[in-house]
Amino acid sequence: MKTSVDSAVIAALALRDVNTVQEVQVALLKKVLASQADTMATLMQSVQPLAVDSNLGSRVNTSA
Question: What range defines the domain where residue 35 resides?
């Protein structure tokens, strides 16, 4: 009986550790995505708009 209790405790502790690692990974992912979003916003603000007319350059005509 003691072996099954020990196994259950070990499994519970392992799951807790996995959960902690996943939380750290998600936090890091959110930081990286926020950083990339800031970088893209900066890049987009530094580019001058090419079209003066809103219809100019809004369509791409292709033929095969």
Answer: 1-43
